[in-house]
Design a protein that fits this description.
transferase; about 210 residues; alpha/beta; Phosphoribosylglycinamide formyltransferase; phosphoribosylglycinamide formyltransferase activity; binds the ligand Nc1nc2c(c(=O)[nH]1)N[C@@H](CN(C=O)c1ccc(C(=O)N[C@@H](CCC(=O)O)C(=O)O)cc1)CN2; binds glycinamide ribonucleotide
């Protein structure tokens, strides 16, 4: 597969980077037609940075604590991202809420994976909240990023049962496996132009099975 056929992407992380690893792995085997131009983290200690280094991918660290406010951090982040001219920005465990200016700049080319069956359980600490709510099922969602945090149009979801013996840790482990399956699938759909965002609506060129 030539580089001209691969979708140029930048991946934003904050921590472990297991979703980054899933994308990396499928990119390296050719299953996922993307070219990861850079991995950018707001956390210098993010384990995902080591994953990128091992794969020979350029990394950048931009610590949000070094900026007076969210707006100046996001503008600095946009400047770095745009230097790589990606066609898609992939949030993979990126733990900062992004400003309207950032979202507008990348609207339709900015996606996220969230560990719940959106629109239920937006925000943080979803596994524990799902257990506390006594839910019988849980899941993960890939969505376009909009101003409404975790409220953007949903691209793909995966569902798992919640067992009586489940803990937040066992749920997190099973959800991560599903994330690693659906995130590359959703990115591939975007790369192959099977989906696009029009306003707040997702236009499917061909339905995707989860
Ligand atoms: N404008 C948007 N920004 C972000 C979205 C989005 O849909 N719209 N998705 C999130 C990802 N996310 C959950 O999937 C999420 C990440 C972080 C937070 C949050 O409350 N962050 C705090 C800091 C938390 C920390 O540093 O540990 C904050 O930014 O103040 C909520 C949801 C990514 N951004
Ligand atoms: N609200 C954002 C959020 O909670 N994202 C979640 O953080 C984890 C990152 O794991 P990873 O760094 O190993 O990909 C993933 O479970 C992802 O869904």
């Amino acid at each position: 597969m030539t580089s001209t056929q691969r979708l140029p992407i930048v991946v934003l992380i904050s921590g472990r980077g297991s979703n980054l690893q899933a994308i990396l792995d499928q990119s390296q085997t050719g299953q996922l037609p993307v070219e990861i131009r850079a991995v950018i983290s707001n956390n210098a200690q993010a384990q995902g940075l080591e994953r990128a280094h091992r794969a020979g991918i350029e990394t950048q660290v931009l610590d949000h604590r070094h900026y007076p406010n969210r707006e100046t951090f996001d503008r600095a982040l946009m400047k770095i991202i745009d230097s790589y001219t990606p066609k898609l920005v992939v949030l993979a465990g990126f733990m900062r809420i992004l400003t309207s200016e950032f979202v507008r700049h990348y609207q339709g080319h900015l996606i996220n994976i969230h560990p719940s069956l959106l629109p239920n359980f937006p925000g943080l600490d979803t596994h524990r909240r799902v257990l506390l709510a006594g839910m019988r099922e849980h899941g993960a969602s890939v969505h376009f990023v909009t101003d409404k945090v975790d409220g953007g149009p949903i691209i793909l979801q995966a569902r798992i049962p919640v067992y009586p013996e489940d803990t937040a840790e066992t749920l997190a482990a099973r959800i991560l496996r599903e994330e690693h399956r659906i995130y590359p699938k959703a990115i591939r759909a975007f790369a192959e132009k099977k989906i696009r965002l029009e306003g707040e609506q997702i236009v499917w060129i061909k339905p995707l099975e989860a």
